[in-house]
Amino acid sequence: MRTLAERLIGKHLKGIDASEPGHGVGALFTDGSAFTVYSSVAVLISSLANVSRVEVVNVSERQVELHLSSHGCITISTDWDKHDMVEAYVFEDEDGTLIVENGT
Prior knowledge:
Layout lengths: L3 H5 L4 E5 L7 E5 L4 E5 L2 E6 L7 E6 L3 E6 L4 E6 L9 E5 L5 E4 L3
Antiparallel strand pairs: 1-2, 2-3, 3-8, 4-7, 5-6, 6-7, 8-9
């Protein structure tokens, strides 16, 4: 079975969903798949001038980094004032496969 990081590599970013404050942040991909980080989180986005493909994924218990083909980066990390670690990383692939990890 492919890991979360392996499934994210090669995905083309469509957008970021932070529609429910305090309940996580999601990355939406052009193929219909989605990746969500649950808990109180902070997001840092740099250089998203062009639609980008995920090239490198670093996952830990405190944050996930998606390094993009446009030299951009999305970092989603826990709000350290509220939590010691991310509650859960959830990936739903376009075929309905669901992967849940906690970064450890």
